[in-house]
From TrEMBL:
Pfam family, one: PGK
A single cellular component GO annotation: cytosol
Keyword Glycosyltransferase: no
Keywords on record: ATP-binding, Cytoplasm, Glycolysis, Kinase, Nucleotide-binding, Transferase
Example of a GO MF term: ATP binding
Reactions performed catalytically: (2R)-3-phosphoglycerate + ATP = (2R)-3-phospho-glyceroyl phosphate + ADP
Pathway(s): Carbohydrate degradation; glycolysis; pyruvate from D-glyceraldehyde 3-phosphate: step 2/5
Residues that, per the record, bind ATP: K208, G294, E325, G351, G352, E353, T354
EC number annotated for this UniProt entry: 2.7.2.3
Name this protein carries in UniProt: Phosphoglycerate kinase
Source organism, top-level taxon: Bacteria
Subunit comment: Monomer.
Biological source species: Telmatocola sphagniphila
């Protein structure tokens, strides 16, 4: 069920799990990308305009347990940004996730108003799916909404699983963001328009092996870039110079080598940079000289990959194809993004870094769907069943 199925919610208190785990400047705590907050706005506006009040909760980062170090992970910053985006005040509920102050603030909450709980992971019970902790949150409201697609794969988070469980038989639904993500990815996997192409990048083959294996059963062609390309190249006997490739990565790539040259394409040229002087670069085909490491796909590869994208009817992309945070090494990632933005294909992007890159290049509005999920996107495409979604009421 989605929030559209809720009926009259005037005066109800809605507990909503959002994923405001946004990138921040590690020193100042300034939010560097608020996409995940913006993505939850339609659901929050809908609830507020229907006369409900909202109790929003999220985790941010992975707290260390040291309050001084973790201060930067408090939800004050996201509450402030949320307030700016919604145009209504967002009250912070206190320094603990649950407790008397929070219960009192929730009880006093008026229709149209928003309360933000403290970072859920400041309480160790959150990641233990603790039923008592969940009960303390559950008693704050009348309705549970899951609009945290980026966290849906976390099966041990109380806010995702134990809280909706504790709230039954009160209504438990998904918000617009989760509903859209599920619909788009379900459609992509069930009835893709062909030819279907995938572009994969990022660092580790081992992290994405299950995802790649599923993709290989679905797509017509898989293009590899990013750090993982050098793993495949090394495994095929290419000298990758000073590019670091761990042994376990070579092992992970082993079973996939049979697809290289047919379903899987690797870069034929790459931008390399001197390990001790990144300003010294050279485009290389074949072996990479000692002292140099691969940092981006080369121009010939980009031209080939762009042509493949232009020929496809569906393109799914996960993982930057180069070190895009460095402007000098961002051409490949930008080029892949441009090819997708200019194509008539259904284009889907998943994974935090890839989404960040496409936004940085100002191309996101030309992509059919940019997922808010990182690990959740991979897991959902892999066909994993989420314990969080099993708690949502069925229509
Ligand atoms: C994410 O960014 O992928 C989600 O917010 C989940 O965060 P986690 O990987 O720390 O569980």
């Amino acid at each position: 069920k989605t929030i559209k199925n809720l009926g009259d919610i005037q005066g109800k208190k809605v507990i909503i799990r959002v994923d405001f785990n946004v990138p921040m400047d590690k020193k100042t705590g300034v939010i560097t990308n608020d996409r995940r907050i913006r993505a939850a706005i339609p659901t929050l506006k809908y609830l507020l305009e229907a006369g409900a009040s909202v109790i929003a909760m999220s985790h941010i980062g992975r707290p260390s347990g040291d309050p001084a170090k973790d201060a930067i992970l408090k939800t004050d910053g996201v509450a402030k940004r949320l307030s700016e985006l919604l145009g209504v005040p967002v009250k912070k509920a206190g320094d603990t996730v649950v407790g008397p102050a929070v219960t009192a603030a929730a009880a006093a909450l008026q229709p149209g108003h928003v309360l933000m709980l403290e970072n859920l992971r400041f309480d160790p019970r959150e990641q233990k799916n603790d039923p008592e902790f969940a009960q303390q949150i559950a008693q704050l409201g009348d309705i549970y909404v899951n609009d945290a697609f980026g966290t849906c794969h976390n099966d041990k988070d109380a806010s995702m699983v134990a809280v909706p469980k504790a709230m039954a038989p009160k209504p438990r639904v998904v918000g617009f963001l989760v509903a859209k993500e599920l619909e788009v990815i379900d459609g992509l996997m069930a009835h893709p328009k062909r030819p279907m192409l995938a572009v994969m990048g990022g660092a580790k083959v081992s992290d994405k092996i299950a995802f790649i294996n599923v993709l290989l059963t679905k797509v017509d062609h898989l293009l590899i870039g990013g750090k993982m390309a050098y793993t495949f190249l090394k495994a095929r006997g290419v000298d990758v110079g000073s590019t670091r490739v761990a042994d376990e990565e070579l092992t992970a790539a082993g079973p996939l080598l049979q697809y290289v040259g047919n379903k899987i394409s690797l870069p034929i040229d790459y931008v390399t940079a001197k390990s001790d002087d990144l300003n010294t670069t050279q485009v290389v085909e074949g072996n990479i000289p000692v002292g140099f490491e691969g940092v981006d796909i080369g121009p010939k590869t980009l031209a080939n990959y762009s042509a493949e994208i232009a020929k496809s009817a569906t393109v799914i992309w996960n993982g930057p194809v180069g070190w895009f945070e460095q402007p000098a090494f961002s051409k490949g990632t930008r080029g892949v993004g441009e090819a997708m933005a200019n194509s008539h294909a259904v284009t889907i992007i998943g994974g935090g870094e890839t989404a960040e890159a496409i936004e940085q290049f100002g191309l996101d509005s030309k992509i059919t769907h940019v997922s808010t999920g990182g690990g959740a996107f991979l897991a959902y495409v892999e066909g994993k069943k989420f314990a969080s979604l099993a708690q949502i009421d069925e229509v």
